[in-house]
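User: Batch of two.

Assistant: Item 1 of 2:
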Amino acid sequence: MDRGIRCQKCGLMQLNRPSCKSCGAKLSDYPFTPNIPGFHAEQPGAKDPSGNLSSFPMEANFGTERIAGHRFHFHGKGLPLFGIYGVNLFLSLVTLGIYYFWGKAKVRNYLMSHIELEGDCFEYHGTGKELLMGFLKALILFFIPLVALNSGPELLGTGPVIRSVAAGLAYGVIMVFIPIAMVGARRYRLSRTSWRGIRFSFRGEAWGFLKIFAFGTFLSTITLGLYFPFFDARRYDFMISHSFFGNRNFSFNGRGRDLFRPFLVALLLTLPTLGFYWFWFGAKKQRYYWEHTTIGPNRFRSSITGRALMNLQVGNFLIALFTLGLGWPWIITRKIQFGCKYLTLEGPLTLAEVQQEAQKAVATGEAMSGFLDTDFSLEV
C-alpha cells in the first residue's frame, strides 16, 4: 500500500520526504497523530517492529471505515481550448453573434469534462439555446429598462430633478439586480453540473441574499470597508449552505471575525509591501473558507500559499500582456489546474446514500450576471 504523510503546517498530503512540497516546512517538525478511536499509526520516522521506517498512510483504517484524501485533477490544455475559442469567434462573426451562446456552452463543457475526482469527470449539461433564451429575458427585464432610465431623461430634455430621480432609480435597479443575478447564475450553473450522474443544485432564495447584500454593502460603506470580512463570510455562507449534491447539503461553519485580524494586517501592509501582501491574505482566506466547508462526512482541505497565488496571478498577467489577450485559454486552464492542485476532499465517499434531487433553473440570472460582471464562471 502506498504511504504518505500530511504536512501539519499547510495540510498537504504527499509522499514521505524531508520537507513539505508546498510550504517547505520540515515534516519532522510537525508530527501527525490523529486522535481518533480505532486508529493505530506510528509517528512519521518511527520504526515498526521489523525495523523499517513507517509514516502516516495515505489511506488508513479508522475502525471499519477507510479515510482518504480525494484529490481533484484537471486534464485540460490551453491549445485545444484555443482552438475552441477560435472556432467560436469565427462562427459568432458569421452568425452576427448568435453562435456566441453555443460557443460559451461548448467551452464550459470542455472545462468541466476535464475536471476529475476519484477517476470520474464532472459533466456540464447547459445548452446554447438556454443561454440565448436567458439573455433575451434579461434583455427585456433588466437591460432595456436600465437604458431607458439612463438615456430617457436626456433624450426627452427633462429638468435636473427628473434626471436625478432617474439616475437614483437606475442605481437602485443595479443594486437590486446584482444579488438577484448572482443567485440566478449560481442556481443555473449548479443545476447544469453533475458528477457520476448526480446533479448539483442551489436552493437559496434571492430575497434572502438580497437582504445580506444590502445590509453588508451599507455597513461596509459606513465602516470604510472594515465590515467587509464579515460581509464576505456571510455571502459565502449563503451560497455554500444552500448548495446541494443530489440530496446532500453543503455546509459552512466559518466566521467573518476569524478573518478580521488578517484583513487588518493586510490593510496595514498594503503600502510597505506595495500591495503584494494581499496575495498572502487571499491564500489564507481561501484556505479558511475551504477548510470550513463540508458536505456530509467530507471536509475540504486547501494547501494554497501566498507565494503560489502570487506566481499564478502575476504569470497570468504577463501572459495576457505579452500575447495581447490571445493567451486567455492558457490563463483559464492555469487557474483551474491551480485550484485543483491545492484542493483535497477528505473523508469516506459514502455515495450510496446520495439520491438524485435535480432542481429546475433558467438561464435568466446567468445572463444578468454577464451584464453586471458578477459572473460565477469556471475561470475564476
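Item 2 of 2:
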Amino acid sequence: MKIYVFPADMTGCGYYRLVWPSEALIKKGHDVTVVPPHQRDNMMQATLRNGVVTSVKIPSDADVLVLQRVTHRYLAQAIKVIRQSGVAVVVDMDDDLTCIHPSNPAFNALHPVNGNVDHSWQNTLAACDNATLVTVSTPALATRYGRKTPAHVLYNMVPERMLDVPHIDSDVVGWGGAVFSHPTDLQELGPSIATLLRDGGAFKIAGPIDGVHRALGLPSEAPVATTGVITDITAWPLAINSLGIGVAPLADSRFNNAKSWLKMAEYAAVGVPCIGSPREEYRRLNRKGIGLVAKNPTEWTKQIRRLRNSQSLREDLSFNGRAVMETLTIEDNAELWVEAWTEALIRDRVGRNPLVRNGI
C-alpha cells in the first residue's frame, strides 16, 4: 500500500497529526511519502472546467492520499474525483473550524460569508463528506466531521524524545501558547495570576507576550517572563520545560470542547506538573493520572498554591505524567495511523468491487 501524506503546514499541527506519525511508519518499513505544502502543486494538479474540477493528476502509484485541514473549494471538489480514479482519500482534522472565535485571525479567513471565495469551513465540511474516511483527534470532532463519512479518532500523541528532556523542579507557573489563537482562554484564570505575583511567585509565557497582560487583567508593568515566539518546533519542548507548573486554561466554548488534550499532554511529557480546565479531553487525560483540574478562578488560585507549596506533589505529578505519556508516544502507536489508512483503502475497494463486497 502506497500512501502519500499532505500536511497542511510544517508547524505543530502538521507534525503531530501527520509528519511524525509518517516518519515513525517509514522507519517501520511502511511505504509512506510526506509531501510538504510547498511541494503539493508538483504532486497534485487539477484540471478545471467552468470553475469545476474535472480531473486530478496524482502520483500513479498512490493507493491512499491523506489530506489535512482542507479548506479550499477546489481541493474539496478534487477529493471526489480522486476517489473515482480508484484512490482512497483520508481527511485529517484537529479543530472544529465551524466555530472559531471571531477574535481568532482564522475566523475571517474561513467564514463563508466574509467574501473569501476560495477558502471556508464550508469547504472543509464538503471535503470530509467527500472523503473515504475522516481522522480526528477527539470524539467531538468525529461527530462534527463524520456526518456522511466514517470518522476514526486518533488521539494526539507525543514524540518519545520529549520524555527524555531533563526536567528541573521549580515553582515557576507558566503557560505555553499565544493569545492571538487563544483570545478568551487566559481569562479563565481570573485573578489567580495577579494573586500569584502578589504572593511573590513568578509567571512565564512559553511563546509571545503580546496580549498576555490584558488577558490576565495585569498592569503593563507586571513582571511576566517570556521565551518569545518559538518558530522551531524542535525548540518547543525546551520552552515549555522551562516552566515549573504548567497551566492549560480553556474557555467553555463549542470550539474548545472539541479540542484535544495536547497542551496537558505536552506538559506531562516533559515532566511539568500541570493544571487544566474541565474540558472533556483534559478530563479524559486527568482520569489517566495526569495533572489537576480547576473549574473556576477560585480553584485556579487554590491549585496553583497547592503545587507551589508542595515540591513532593509537583514531583509526584511529574513522575505520573511522564509514566502515562510513555504509553502515548507516536512511535509506539504509529500503527494506529496506518490501520486507519488501510481501513480507508479497504472501504473504497470493497465499495467498488462487488465480488469483494460479497466476500467472494
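The chain has two domains: 3-157+331-357, 160-325.
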